[in-house]
Amino acid sequence: MLSLFLLAAAPLAQAAAVPSPADPVAADWRAVPDDELLVMTLANGRQVVIRLAPAMAPAHVGNVRTLARTRWWDGASVYRVQENWVTQWGDATEKKPLPAGVTDRPAAEFEIAAFRPAVRMAKADGYSTASGITADGWPVATNGTQAWVTHCYGMVGVARDTLPSTGSGAELFTPIGQSARRLDRNYTVVGRIVEGMQYLSALPRSEAAMGMYATAGERVPIVSVRLASDLPAGERPHFQYRSADNPRFAAAVTRRENPEAPMVSLGGASVCDVLPAVRRAP
Amino acid sequence: MLSLFLLAAAPLAQAAAVPSPADPVAADWRAVPDDELLVMTLANGRQVVIRLAPAMAPAHVGNVRTLARTRWWDGASVYRVQENWVTQWGDATEKKPLPAGVTDRPAAEFEIAAFRPAVRMAKADGYSTASGITADGWPVATNGTQAWVTHCYGMVGVARDTLPSTGSGAELFTPIGQSARRLDRNYTVVGRIVEGMQYLSALPRSEAAMGMYATAGERVPIVSVRLASDLPAGERPHFQYRSADNPRFAAAVTRRENPEAPMVSLGGASVCDVLPAVRRAP
Q1: Residues A148-154: what's their mean pLDDT?
Q2: Integer CA distances (angstroms), A206 to A215, A222, B127, in order
Q3: In what residue span(s) does the PPIase cyclophilin-type domain sit (chains A, B) (predicted)?
């Protein structure tokens, strides 16, 4: 009675033992630019690496870069962990002045200019009429008119006050349970956690209002947040994403939507279930 | 810059400050029978309460009840925690003999007899053509021919070996990340965690194969698993679920699918995003 799962949890990445048309080739792996990687170091050396999405939310990512360069988050904390919802970090007091160069209320970037996936999901979902993965690996959706980046597990969103606030990017969150797709088109997505998600998803939940840690002692101190491009060369991590604009990735999505027997195929999947792998450069 | 979320994470439950047609009335709350509640006590007194679904998987729930009554899980452990996938518990050695009365390989209960939701979701999703919530609160879906209970976050599934095994119910898992909808129709759902989910979702992730804890020391000991009906009256918890066969719940689902301004409405949601509240009896 070996209780393993046939379906591994891993993203669409690793080559199987038997080569498959869904396996990536070397050229499918593309470098994440150093200034699109954010390295957040928590207490006890736990490191969370975020891939930024400047093409999707340029103003908010611009703020995030300035906040990192001015070391604004150093000494901040992870201050909110709400069960089956989000982990949130930044300045728990929400009173620390923003540094020069950060726009307090940028124009909304809840949506993106156009729906241009490289691979489309076979079926619509409850939140959109179509969805897919862009060539550079971002999950996107549309209602036929507007398009947006989806709030999958592990994506990084910009916390904000009630509308019309868009948030500055100083307070960030990531969904840690069922996806937070109902935030789509209402919050700005600035990136995706590509390493160290477990340091945010496995934190103790708070039962206080909104999952805010009730005491300072519960918070996880943030030691530093840096763009990889601002780190000394020797400390700089290098990541690659699996690109989606090739038949291998399309085959991987199709296989996820139509798994082989003995699995029963559902003929579809959620865009959040096919996020392309991101790895450290070998 | 108060970075709160407009949308609370709570299930569709609590009455708002201003009464709404989506608020439950007293009669909407119905008792969960004592023999449909499973109380799992972990080390350090952490308690996880599971609502069983005997109507959905009678043979496997029958096994689960026998395993509890014979105290088979006492001294077992939570032995697998895989990031963005599942937490799994039972006998880590997978060698402990099953007690008399437990069928090692019951007939498959991956599907249910019919798709009979009390409330239907407005839109299809990637895994089914229709979905909804049954009168007694279970998330179900259909492809037009077969019907099944969905693998939402916090549901309890039966781990198994490769097909045609159905698992006995001795090894159980719950999705702890993005939902595990791609297991629909391939695994048996026996229940839902209705209290204490954080004691399974916030455990340290294992980086060993399949997220199995690599050492015995990592495992979380299970002190006991009991049906509430087998506990002394004074220790017996009493739970109620919010029923779905009433216009209040239907209004709550519609509101989740079409939130009011200033939120932008997506006109839909996932069935996993509208699970009815379950609470301790007041």
Answers
A1: 98
A2: 10, 18, 32
A3: 47-229
Spatial distance between the Cα atoms of B248 and B274, rounded to a whole number of angstroms: 13
% of chain A with per-residue pLDDT over 70? 94
**ipTM for this model:** 0.94
Distance from CA of A35 to the nearest CA of B (A): 26
Is A110 an interface residue toward B (CB < 8 Å)?
Answer: yes
**Res A17: pLDDT:** 65
**Residue entry with tokens 């050695």:** B93
Best probe of the A interface among B266, B271, B273, B275, by most A CBs < 10 A, is B266
Q: Where are the alpha helices (DSSP H) in chain B?
A: 58-69, 198-201, 247-257
Instruction: Give the position of tokens 């996938």.
Output: B85
CB proximity B177 to A under 8 Å? yes
Q: Which of A178, A162, A179, A161 is nearest to A170 (CA)?
A: A161
Pairwise CB contact (< 8 Å): A153 & B84: yes
What dotted CATH number matches A29-280? 2.40.100.10
Residue B170 CA to residue B96 CA, distance in Å, equals: 10
Superfamily of domain B26-231+240-280 in CATH is: Cyclophilin-like (2.40.100.10)
Give the per-residue pLDDT at B6. 37
Residue-wise pLDDT for B190-249, tens only, equals 999 999 999 999 999 999 999 999 999 999 999 999 999 999 999 999 999 999 999 999
pLDDT of B132 reads 98
Mean pLDDT of A27-41: 98
B67 shares contact with chain A (CB less than 8 Å): no
Q: Where are the domains of chain A?
A: 29-280
